[in-house]
Amino acid sequence: MLVFISRRLLSTIPVLIFVAVFVFMLLRLTPGDPAAVIAGDNATSDQVDAIRAKLGLDEPIWTQFYIWVSKAFAGDFGESFFFKKTVAELIAQRIQPTLSLALCTLVLAVLIAVPLGVLAAARQGSWTDRIVMGFSVLGFSVPAFVVGYLLIYIFAIQLGWLPVQGFRRIEEGFGEFITRLILPSITLSVIYIALISRITRASVIETLGEDYIRTARAKGLPARVVLLRHALRNAAVPIITVIGIGIALLIGGVVVTESVYNIPGIGRLTVDAVLARDFPIIQVVILMFSFVYVLINLLIDIAYSFFDPRIRY
Amino acid sequence: MTVIRRTLMAGVAVAALAAVLPATAMAQGTLRVVQHGNLTVLDPIWTTAYVTRNHGYLIYDTLFSADAKYAVKPQMVDKYDISADKLTYTFTLRDGLEWHDGAPVTSEDCIASLNRWAKRDAMGLKLWDFVKELKAVDAKTFQMVLKEPYGLVLDSLGKPSSQVPFMMPKRVADTNAMEQIKDYIGSGPFIYQTRDSKPGEKHVYLKNPKYKPRAEPPSGLAGGKVVKLDKVELVEMPDVQTQANALLAGEIDIVEAPPHDLLPTLKADKNIVLQDWNPLGHQFIIRFNHVVKPFDNPKIRLAALYAINQEDYLKATVGDPAYYKVCGAAFICGTPFATDKGSDFLLKSNFERSKELLKEAGYDGTPVVLMQSTTLPILTNTAPVTKALLEKGGFKVDMQSMDWQTLVSRRTKKDPADKGGWNILHTYSVSADVLNPIATSYMVADGDKGWFGWPTDPEMEKLRAAFSKETDLAKQKDLAEKVQLRALETAQYGWIGQWYGPGARRTNISGWLEAPVPVFWNIEKKG
């Protein structure tokens, strides 16, 4: 297992190098000049040129790449063109909101979706099954921002139960922290509940048709035990796979949710950086996301062997 | 045991509930404002961005300021004297002016601040053509000595909008003008809280307890800057629907510039008032690229101006006539240099004349590249109107859509339009930036030194120079009119209507001053 993990971790290095080169080149080829954005609308061409020179953007692209890579190897990921803060500092500020939102969403999605999927599978063809699957289709179809604005209108503006927007750090008080995460987490979890419940249902239905389930029933085990201990555990591999993919998709999903609920997380930092062509931030954020993707895939593979002892590395 | 356990559980439940309930009481005296954009750069001399200018007005002070009637009044300056030959200006600072760190404001600080500003600002650059020297007389008095009389000395020092000559401590102002400052010490009515401010989240300003406001009542940007709040938070909230929701829910107090389509929703709420804090509003612009074909030909530019009309733009972008004005004046209707002379053809399309001019100019039907910004909502609909009108006037138009950042990058290119350049763009200005021929960057006609589009017209530059040297208001007005007529004659650019964007505030907020910039002194918050 250790060899497997080490090999997988080592394999991230070429992936990250490829991503670094690709993103760096892509950003330089994309139309848009950070110097012109920084200079503002009333700036003259001379002023834009001076800022471009100051940022080193007038250097040949390979020189820029060399400077960036050599600094990155020394742990210096550069400074934002706009904020005049290091990229590491900016990302550190934005990690907590995004991690909190992603974690709450994941917990909510798994806690709701897995039981719903198992219930639908156990009552296949019944009204319960149809209702669960109907909600699942709805969850897939409605965009996150629509769900978000709807929830805000009902629970924040009409009922006044929860805040419209914003984020409070956990150190500012758990109550403030959690109340500001309820609506965003529900918004973001809708699509994952739809996805995970559907896969859970399909996987459990397939498992329920296996011989060992018939044997378990023949032994006289209660239906609940057969369903949860035998069927669900054996159906776990595809469910874990989809949860893992869900985490990866979550990274994209937070961008919209963070905008709707004004959460100052990594998603908004990325959007702001892309709109302003703040290259140092975009480069590091994409590298970080790539690393997270690779890591999640590794964790999923490790989890397989936990749920299915036949899988060995 | 069971009773104890139940009691404990109930206690835990109550404590958890209390912790989870949202804290509805907000700190009194804290004003939460959402600006029209995110504040990313904190150096108001380094960038012309309006959000940065607004930040500047919170923490810095100015030597002079424009009042509600756009007359320049002393602000940090106590008294000033102009020599009989109009070559020496002597300024004396008010008593008791202090930087936020407690050090006194001195003449040397002001000289360093003006020197840095003059390297970046268009009016500053022009003024410095005339400045022979700036010298400190004593700690509170300094002199500006000119090479020849210049009519806009005080207007330059009291210019209301970007880039504003804010005063900074000498150690800060000595920063290279091409680099951003990193020390945000000012002498203004609020103190910037670097530690509590988080870019992308909020910027925090505390009341400056040592600030000494002028005795006069506030008027525009002039007069006494009396702070009636403990704290101002500029909350970063890019989504306009979220801004409206947060204002409706009372989570923020002011939205500086809600989009026009959300105004009816906000107006309908009894807790919200719309306030036109900037009565001069904004001006839309159509700009031609003078250095590439076909708009290097003045007749073709003129043909384009004959094809357009202001009302079509204003209807397509703003919609409600309550928030726009058809205005023939380049220097904004209702201001000292406003005149509608010669601008009739900007108000009503004349497609026949446009076609005639194109024929006379030998326009070969090559499509003109019109850049459309799709990310600034107020500008998005200007380009489709231009396309429709120019096509009726005989042009072929290739409208290319892009985000604003791409547009501002592409507009710096002087290549032909089919090789990555451009022919036409739209932008808008805060009216305070276009009140006279010197401040209006679109009027500059000295080629590469001018604004994008780079017109070259020695006659225009002669008129602008004459205006800048003139000190008599009546003669200045006459010259401003000549500048406008010249701009129309050569079709240098087009001003295509004025529009207004009221702010929205909660009803418990009062004292928001009318000024070309949103300012937060004089504002009170009840409850």
Any overview of this molecule?
The complex is a heterodimer of chains A (313) and B (527). Chain A is 78% helix and 0% strand. Chain A has helices at 2-29, 34-39, 45-55, 61-73, 87-122, 127-141, 144-158, 174-208, 211-218, 223-234, 236-260, 266-276, 279-307. The longest helix of chain A is centred in the middle third of the chain and has 36 residues, at 87-122. The relative contact order of chain A is 0.14. Chain B contains 17 helices and 21 strands. The model of chain B is unreliable at 1-27 (pLDDT under 50). Chain B has 527 residues and is of the alpha+beta class. Among the domains of chain B are: 45-180, Alpha-Beta Complex (Dipeptide-binding Protein, domain 1), CATH 3.90.76; 282-499, Dipeptide-binding Protein, domain 3 (Roll). In chain B, strand 2 and strand 3 form a beta hairpin. The interface between A and B is large, with 56 and 59 residues.
Short description:
Chain A is an all-alpha fold. Chain A has 13 helices and no strands. Chain B has helices at 2-20, 50-59, 107-117, 122-128, 153-157, 170-173, 240-248, 263-267, 298-307, 310-317, 344-347, 351-361, 377-380, 382-392, 404-410, 458-469, 473-489; strands spanning 30-34, 64-66, 72-74, 77-82, 88-93, 131-136, 141-146, 190-192, 202-207, 231-235, 254-255, 272-275, 282-288, 324-325, 368-373, 397-402, 424-430, 493-499, 503-506, 509-510, 524-525.
CATH top level class name of the domain at 282-499 in chain B? Alpha Beta
Major sheet summary line of chain A: none
- The dominant shape of chain B is globular
Which fold does the CATH topology of the largest domain in chain A refer to? MetI-like fold
- Determine the mean pLDDT of chain A: 87
CATH class of the largest domain in chain A: Mainly Alpha
Alpha plus pi helix count of chain B? 17
CATH architecture grouping of the domain at 282-499 in chain B: Roll
Q: How far apart are the termini of chain A?
A: 6 Å
Shape of chain A: globular
Number of helices of chain A: 13
Spans of chain B of 5+ residues with little confidence (pLDDT < 50)?
1-27
| Greatest contact between two chains | A-B, 56 and 59 residues
Assign a percent range to the helix content of chain A: over 70%
What would you give as the CATH superfamily of the largest domain in chain A?
Answer: MetI-like
C-alpha Rg of chain B, in Å?
25 Å
Count every beta strand of chain B, where a strand is a DSSP E run of 2 or more residues.
21
Strands of the biggest beta sheet of chain B: in what spatial order?
8-9-10-1-11-19-12
CATH homolog superfamily of the domain at 282-499 in chain B? Dipeptide-binding Protein, Domain 3
User: Would you report the number of β strands of chain A?
Assistant: 0
- The arrangement of helices and strands of chain A along the chain is HHHHHHHHHHHHH
